[in-house]
User: What shape does this take?
Amino acid sequence: MDITGLIGRSPDRLSLAERRNFAGLWIALELYTPETLPLRRIEAAGRNVSECARQLKSRGLDPLNFEFVALKN
Assistant: This one.
């Protein structure tokens, strides 16, 4: 399964076919803080939270600044 097409996209903009295809994957979205107004875009995707955290760390991002959500149909 190629997840590279998810990175940088808004989860709200995924088509129904994409939602079905990627259902069950976990995604990482940057947390809102008063100092930031992050775009709601997917920064990592994987089969579990650990995989997402590894992807974020490999890009120099702190996983503690992200929320992890499972995609549903």
Remarks:
- The chain has two helices and three strands.
- The first strand starts at residue 26 and ends at 30.
